[in-house]
Write a structure and sequence with these properties.
Layout lengths: L2 E4 L4 E5 L3 E8 L3 E9 L27 H4 L19 E5 L8 E10 L17 E10 L4 E10 L4 E10 L5 E14 L4 E6 L7 E6 L3 E7 L11 E5 L10 E7 L4 E7 L4 E8 L6 E3 L4 E3 L2 E7 L2 H16 L13 E3 L1 H4 L5 H14 L3 E4 L27 H11 L3 E6 L3 E2 L4 H5 L19 E2 L5 H16 L5 E4 L21 H19 L4 E4 L9 H6 L2 E3 L6 H12 L7 E2 L2 E2 L12 H8 L5 E3 L7 H23 L1 E6 L1 H4 L2 E7 L5 E8 L9 E3 L9 E6 L7 E4 H7 L1 E3 L7 E9 L3
Parallel strand pairs: 21-22, 21-31, 22-23, 23-26, 26-27, 27-28, 28-29, 30-31
Antiparallel strand pairs: 1-2, 2-3, 3-4, 5-10, 6-7, 7-8, 8-9, 9-19, 9-20, 10-17, 10-18, 11-12, 11-14, 13-16, 14-15, 15-20, 16-17, 24-25, 32-33, 33-34, 34-39, 35-38, 36-37, 36-39
The protein binds (2R,3S,4R,5S)-2-(hydroxymethyl)piperidine-3,4,5-triol.
(2R,3S,4R,5S)-2-(hydroxymethyl)piperidine-3,4,5-triol binds next to loops.
Length: 735
C-alpha cells in the first residue's frame, strides 16, 4: 500500500519504495506536515509533530492560535491568519479582505492519477501510482480546496497540485496558489538552483541557506534562461553519491517561484508554484482553478540518485511523444549555416551533402515565410516566401524526401512582427496596454494567447502548412519575454489572469498539434534554452538546450540540464568553428562527443567542410547509431565537472542491464608535466568483467573488473592541446 491512512493518529503515510511523506490532521482541522525522507513506519508520523511543545496545538492551548500557526509545519499554509512565513495560498474577497481558514474536511484515495485540466503533468495508470486527495474548506467564503498528492511508488517520486473551487455566493480573487510546500527542520541546508542567462543556461549554483528567504523565480512569462523552476535543499556534505537532497521541479513553462525560507525556530519552508506577481485569478461562484504540478524527489545518496529519479519519472511518466524511446533522425539545421540568407538551392545543396554523410533530416530554420530576410518582419505571416523558395514548401519538402531525408521546419507561433500582415489585420491580437508603447524585444510583439480566437487563428495557420507538405519535424521557437501586460480580451478584474491564460493557450496549441499530427517530432525552443522545463517536455520529447553550441560552454549547460532532465531531451548540435558566439576553436571530434550527449545533429554549412571533417561526420553518424540507445535510455552518471575543477569533464551512461556503457572524457585545458588521470567509473556491476575500448580504436582495449573500474578507477592519458576528448565503449564480457 503506497498510501496508508491511520485512523487513530489521523495521519497519512505516502510511501514510495524508499521514502515516506507524512501528513497529519491536527485538531480535526489543520493539515500539518509530519515528515519527508527515508522510509519510516506510518505509526511514527503522529509523534513527529511536536504537539506537546509550546505553543501547542490550539486544541491544547486555550489562549491563542497565533504561535501555533506561525510555527507548525503546514501542508498548505495560508495568508492572513498568523502564519508569517511564506504562504502557499492567498484569497481576497470582493469586499477586499485577504484571508482564509482552510479546514480539513475529508479525504479520498484513488488508484492512478487524475488529469489536470489544460495543464501538462505526469501521468500514470492504476498500477503506476496512487493519489491522495485532501479536501478542505473555508467556511466564510465557501471556497473549497483539494490538495492532490500522487505517489509513484517504484520511481520514488511524489507529485502535488491543488484544485480550488468556489462554492460560495460571491466571487473571490485567488492572489496566490502555490502547488507545493515542504516544512522541515533545518539541517544546515544549502540551496541548489539552476541559474543562467541567454547562452549560459542552467549553471548549477549552490549557496548556504541563511535566515530569511532565498528564491529562484521568473515573471518573464516563460520559465526563463535566467532562473529555473527547480530547487533542491541539500545537507552540507552532499556530493554526487552522498548526502540528503530534497528537490522540487515545477511542471510549468511560465512564471514561477521556488523559495526556501529559514525561520526564527530553525525550520525551513520550501515552496514552489505560480509566481504571485502578475497573477490574480477571479473565481466566480461555481468556478474551478487548477494549479500546475510540482514534482518532489528525495535522495539519501546525493545528487546522482536525485538525477536518476527525475530521469526515470520523466522518461516513464511525463514525456508522451512516440519518439521518446525511438532513435531520433540525425538532423542538420541551417540556422548557423545561413541565418536568414538562403534559398531553395542553398538548402538543397546542404541536404544533398548531408545525405551523403548519413544525416537523416533537413531542418529549415527562421526566414522561410512572409518577407522575412531579417528579424524585423513577418512573424505571424505563416505563408511560404516563394521569392526565396521557388516552387513552394511542398516541392522543397518532397525534393528533400526524394533524397532520402526527412524535412523539418521552424515556427514561432506565439509572436507577431509589427511589420506583418497579421498585425496589420489584427493589431488587437498583441499583448498590450492601451495608450502605452508595446515594449519591443527582437522587433516583435507577443500574441495574446489568452484569447481563444487568437489561439484558433494561429493554430490554423500553422496546421495548414503542416497539412499541405510532408513535414516530419517542427522546431517551435519563442524569442522574447512577456511585458506591457494587457489583453484587449479580458475585463479589468481578470487582467491578472493574462500570464497564466497565455500559458494555457500555448499548451492548448501544442496539445492540438500533437493530437492532429501524432507522428510529428516536436522540438521546443526559446531563444535557445529559455523554456527548457517539464511542462514543455510533456509535449515535445526534446528541447533546444542553448544557442551556445561551443563544446566547452556546453559542458556546463548540459551538466546543469542533465541534473534534472534525461539526455534524450537535450537538443545538442555540432556547429562550425570559430564558434559563432565565443569565437573559440575546438576539435571537430570534441564537438561531436559533446553533442552526442544530447539529441545530436548539425548546425553548420556542411558544404563548406573539409574532406577530413566530412569523414568525421560519417564517423559521428556511426557513433550515434551505435551508442544512441545506451546514451538516451541508460542511467546517467556525472563523474567530473569542468565547472568545478576548471580542467576536465567526464560523464558516462550505463544501460539498464549494466552490460554496456559509454564514457566521455574532455580534457578542457592541457596541463604541463602531468601524468595520467584516474577516473572512477560508476553504475557498473562490481562482479563483472568489462572491456574498455576507445571508440576510434587508437588506444588498445583493456579488460578490467567492474570493481576495479569503480573503486580504483580507469586511467586516461593526457594529450597535448586544449579541448581534447575521448570516448570509450565499455562492454561486459560474457564468460
Ligand atoms: C532562436 C533559436 O534558439 C535559434 O536556434 C534560431 O532558431 C533562432 N531563434 C531563429 O530566429
Amino acid at each position: 500500500m503506497s498510501i496508508i491512512y491511520d485512523k487513530i493518529g489521523n495521519t497519512f503515510a505516502l510511501n514510495t519504495c524508499e521514502t515516506t511523506y507524512g501528513v497529519a490532521i491536527v485538531d480535526n482541522r489543520y493539515v500539518a506536515h509530519g515528515y519527508y525522507g527515508k522510509r519510516i513506519p506510518a505509526e511514527d508520523i503522529r509523534c513527529l509533530l511536536r504537539e506537546e511543545e509550546a505553543p501547542f496545538t490550539p486544541g491544547k492551548n486555550k489562549r491563542e492560535t497565533g504561535g501555533f500557526l506561525d510555527s507548525m509545519w503546514m501542508e498548505f499554509p495560508e495568508s492572513g491568519m498568523g502564519d508569517f512565513r511564506e504562504s502557499a495560498f492567498c484569497l481576497r474577497t470582493e469586499s477586499g479582505y485577504r484571508a482564509s481558514e482552510l479546514e480539513y474536511d475529508r479525504f479520498e484515495i484513488v488508484q492512478g492519477k487524475p488529469r489536470l485540466l489544460g495543464l501538462p503533468a505526469t501521468w500514470g495508470n492504476e498500477e503506476d501510482c496512487t493519489t491522495l486527495k485532501l479536501y478542505c474548506q473555508d467556511r466564510l467564503t465557501g471556497v473549497r480546496v483539494c490538495l492532490l498528492y500522487t505517489v509513484f511508488e517504484d520511481v520514488d517520486a511524489i507529485t502535488r497540485s491543488v484544485i480550488v473551487e468556489n462554492h460560495g455566493k460571491e466571487g473571490v480573487y485567488l492572489e496566490k496558489a502555490y502547488s507545493g510546500c515542504l516544512d522541515m527542520e533545518d539541517r544546515n541546508f544549502q540551496v541548489v538552483s539552476l541559474m543562467g542567462a541567454w547562452a549560459r543556461e542552467r549553471y548549477i549554483q549552490r549557496l548556504p541557506l541563511g535566515y530569511g528567504r532565498q528564491r529562484a523565480a521568473s515573471f518573464r512569462g516563460e520559465s526563463s534562461h535566467q532562473e529555473h523552476p527547480f530547487m533542491a535543499l541539500v545537507t552540507p556534505e552532499t556530493t554526487e553519491d552522498t548526502g540528503e537532497v530534497y528537490a522540487m521541479n515545477f511542471v510549468y513553462s511560465g512564471n514561477f517561484i521556488a523559495q526556501a525560507e529559514k525561520d526564527q525556530f530553525d525550520s525551513v519552508r520550501m515552496v514552489m508554484g505560480l509566481h504571485p506577481d502578475e497573477f490574480c485569478w477571479k473565481l466566480e461562484p461555481g468556478d474551478t482553478f487548477t494549479a500546475p504540478e510540482v514534482v518532489m524527489v528525495y535522495s539519501d545518496q546525493g545528487f546522482g540518485k536525485m538525477t536518476r529519479l527525475f530521469h526515470r519519472l520523466y522518461r516513464n511518466h511525463l514525456i508522451r511523444s512516440p519518439y521518446l524511446h525511438k532513435e531520433r533522425p540525425i538532423l542538420i539545421n541551417n540556422w548557423e549555416a545561413t541565418y536568414f540568407q538562403f534559398d531553395e538551392k542553398k538548402l538543397l545543396d546542404i541536404a544533398r551533402e548531408s545525405r551523403k554523410l548519413g544525416i537523416e533530416m533537413m531542418v529549415m530554420d527562421d526566414g522561410w515565410f512572409g518577407k522575412r530576410d531579417t528579424d524585423e518582419s513577418s512573424l505571424g505571416d505563416w505563408q511560404v516566401n516563394e521569392g526565396k523558395l521557388k516552387g513552394g514548401l511542398k516541392k522543397l519538402a518532397e525534393q528533400v524526401n526524394d533524397m532520402g531525408m526527412k524535412f523539418g521546419i521552424w515556427f514561432e507561433p506565439e509572436m507577431v512582427s509589427p511589420d506583418s500582415d497579421l498585425y496589420r489585420a489584427h493589431p488587437d491580437w498583441a499583448i498590450q496596454i492601451p495608450g502605452r508603447d508595446i515594449t519591443q524585444v527582437r522587433q516583435q510583439y507577443v500574441l495574446d494567447l489568452s484569447r481563444q480566437e487568437v489561439v484558433d487563428g494561429v493554430y490554423e495557420m500553422v496546421a495548414e502548412i503542416l497539412r499541405n507538405a510532408p513535414i516530419a519535424y517542427v522546431k517551435w521557437d519563442m524569442n522574447r519575454p512577456l511585458c506591457t501586460l494587457g489583453s484587449l480580451g479580458l475585463p479589468p478584474e481578470r487582467m491578472g489572469e493574462l500570464s497564466h491564460r497565455y500559458m494555457l493557450g500555448v499548451y492548448q496549441m501544442q496539445e492540438r498539434l500533437t493530437e492532429e499530427f501524432p507522428d510529428l517530432l516536436l522540438e521546443n525552443c526559446s531563444s535557445g534554452g529559455g523554456r527548457f522545463d517539464p511542462g514543455m517536455l510533456y509535449y515535445s520529447p526534446q528541447i533546444w538546450c542553448s544557442d551556445d553550441t561551443d563544446a566547452v560552454e556546453r559542458l556546463a549547460i548540459q551538466e546543469g540540464t542533465a541534473m534534472v532532465y534525461p539526455l534524450s531531451t537535450m537538443g545538442a548540435h555540432v556547429s562550425a568553428c570559430p564558434n559563432h558566439i565565443l569565437g573559440r576553436v575546438t576539435p571537430f571530434e570534441t564537438r561531436g562527443y559533446v553533442a552526442l550527449a544530447g539529441t545530436f545533429g548539425y548546425e553548420l554549412d556542411i558544404t563548406k567542410l573539409s574532406e577530413e571533417e566530412k569523414e568525421m561526420v560519417k564517423e559521428q553518424v556511426r557513433l550515434y547509431h551505435r551508442y544512441h540507445k545506451v546514451i538516451a535510455d541508460g542511467e546517467y552518471y556525472r563523474l567530473d565537472s569542468y565547472r568545478e575543477n576548471e580542467r576536465y569533464d567526464s560523464w558516462m551512461t550505463v544501460s539498464q542491464d549494466r552490460k554496456e556503457a559509454v564514457l566521455v572524457y574532455v580534457q578542457v585545458l592541457a596541463e604541463a608535466n602531468k601524468k595520467s588521470r584516474c577516473i572512477r567509473l560508476k553504475g557498473l556491476d562490481e562482479k563483472a568483467m568489462y572491456e574498455v575500448k576507445d571508440v576510434t580504436g587508437r588506444e588498445k582495449a583493456v579488460c578490467r573488473s567492474g570493481a576495479a573500474l569503480m573503486n580504483a578507477g580507469f586511467r586516461i592519458l593526457p594529450e597535448a592541446g586544449d579541448f581534447r576528448s575521448i570516448m570509450y565503449e565499455i562492454r561486459m564480457k560474457t564468460v
